[in-house]
Design goal:
Bound molecules: zinc ion
Helix content: 55-70%
Largest sheet: 7 strands, antiparallel
Structural class: alpha+beta
Radius of gyration: 39 Å
Strand order of the largest sheet: 4-3-2-1-7-6-5
Oligomer: single chain
Low-confidence stretches: 322-326
Distance between the termini: 113 Å
Order of helices and strands: EEEEEEEHHHHEHEEEHHHHHHHHH
Number of domains: 2
Strand content: 15-25%
Length: 358
């Protein structure tokens, strides 16, 4: 021996074409890599590093070093092999090791995708909803209102049984608040009808068609101001485009893109085809709160009690207590909290108006 062999790695050696193995170690000697049997130190294979096929590093999978004679030295000592390769001027880690880091990259990519997806949902859909509302021609809400009213007239409503004088009182109050609304009195039509199974309710369609049922008027007794406050709330829903917004949000990302990019009429027709689809939508809590605040503001502007809608909530709570649930509550939940929020907002609005009062 010319020089002390430097041990590169310990492992196993497989003879050519054999699965048999024997303990061995790889050493560097005289510019060659040599496999020596652990017991006895008999040389089993040797070759210049350049003639060896060295498998790439993949996690802790054993490295295979194939000699020109077909024999294989196998070791888990990655560090030893890499150090030897670096010493030989060959890259240690290799592409597969880089690929193994791919798992980390994949995790990062998935995370980024989630964050982007969340961002699209959080900001993209609301932005598209705004665009959709902006490009919606007036004919669409009109068509929606028409089909909804047709459905209701067939399925639920009968002509109003209210006295003409009572209707005129409510209409006069309604005209006062509608005149203060951002769209003006001409944008709204008030309809009375017997609500049948729908019971005491009031709702607005996106074209400004408002409906109040005889049952709600009866429930209010002589409190016309309360009815006007409820109608002001409905005007709030129309002004803030709550129904369209809700409908468009339900259409989702794909639906919205279709609506905006394509024929808006066709997309909406699908929803309209179900007739009364609008009524199945309940407004979100935040939409209800917004409409409540609008009621307070419109009522104050028209010289009414700004908090009049709070009396409606009190009435609902009484009914709920008495009868264990009224249909109107399912479309108008959280009454106690809303009543409190209305009173708070009414106080602020009154203060802002210099507590002049009606
Ligand atoms: Zn509402």
């Amino acid at each position: 021996m010319v020089s002390d062999p430097a041990i590169v790695a310990a492992g196993e050696w497989h003879p050519p074409g054999s699965s048999r193995s024997q303990e061995a170690r790889l050493v560097a000697r005289d510019g060659k890599l040599v496999v020596l049997a652990t017991q006895g130190g008999v040389p089993l294979a040797e070759a210049a590093p350049a003639r060896l096929a060295i498998s790439a590093r993949v996690g802790s999978i054993p490295r295979r070093i194939t000699f020109p004679d077909g024999s294989v030295f196998e070791t888990r000592d990655n560090a030893g092999i890499d150090a030897c390769l670096v010493a030989q001027g060959r890259r240690g880690a290799g592409v597969v090791h880089w690929l193994e880091q791919f798992r980390l990259r994949l995790a990062v990519i998935v995370l980024v995708a989630f964050v982007l997806g969340g961002a699209v949902y959080r900001w993209g859909v609301p932005a598209l909803v705004e665009v959709a509302i902006w490009v919606t021609p007036p004919a669409v809400p009109q068509l929606m209102a028409k089909t909804t009213m047709e459905t209701l007239d067939v399925t639920a409503f009968s002509p109003t049984a209210l006295a003409g004088s009572r209707r005129r009182e409510i209409e006069a109050g309604f005209a006062r608040i509608a005149a203060r609304s951002s769209r003006g009195a001409a944008a709204y039509t008030l309809n009375f009808c017997d609500g049948g199974l729908i019971g005491p309710n009031a709702f607005a369609l996106p074209d400004g068609t408002l409906v109040v049922t005889d049952q709600l008027v009866e429930m209010a007794g002589t409190d016309t101001e309360l009815i006007v406050a409820v109608l002001a709330h409905e005007i709030g829903h129309v002004e803030l485009e709550h129904s369209l917004r809700q409908l468009y949000r339900a259409a989702g990302m794909a639906g919205l893109i279709m609506l905006i990019a394509g024929d808006i009429g066709v997309g909406v027709e699908d929803i309209l085809a179900q007739g009364g689809g609008l009524l199945a939508l309940s407004h979100s809590r935040s939409a209800e709160r917004e409409a409540d605040r609008r009621s307070v503001e419109l009522m104050a502007a028209a010289g009414y009690d700004p908090a009049a809608i709070a009396r409606f909530f009190a009435l609902l709570e009484d009914r709920l207590g008495d009868r264990g649930g009224a249909t109107i509550l399912s479309t108008h939940p959280d009454t106690p909290e809303r009543r409190k929020a209305v009173l708070d907002h009414a106080r602020r609005v009154s203060e802002a108006r210099g507590t002049a009062g009606p």
